[in-house]
Amino acid sequence: MSRPGPDDGGMPITGSRPARGLAAAALLAFLGVLVVYLDRPGYTPARLALFLALGGAATLGTTGAVLGRASIAAVGALLLALLGFWQATLWIFVLPMAGVLAAASLLIALDERTVEDR
Description:
With about 120 residues, this protein is mostly helical. It contains four helices and no strands.
């Protein structure tokens, strides 16, 4: 059995399809980390607001990646990176999530460019 090609009506496997799945998996892990850190001692409404903003930015970027919108994924990655610098404790989680979204955005944009060239 061969892979479907663009000529036989199937959707070819490109670099952006695995990146979309990776972005979705990374979002689930990232939201799990936020829930764990939110429950730590020192809970404040400011922490809740920051975590909601981080989760919202990550969800926005992942939605853009899954829907194949490179610009939305890039905006989500940028917002996540900017918000992540405010919370030094979560850098280890925020910046890799922003990197996954940026990579997915780049791969989607490259796929769009390749499709336009065909």
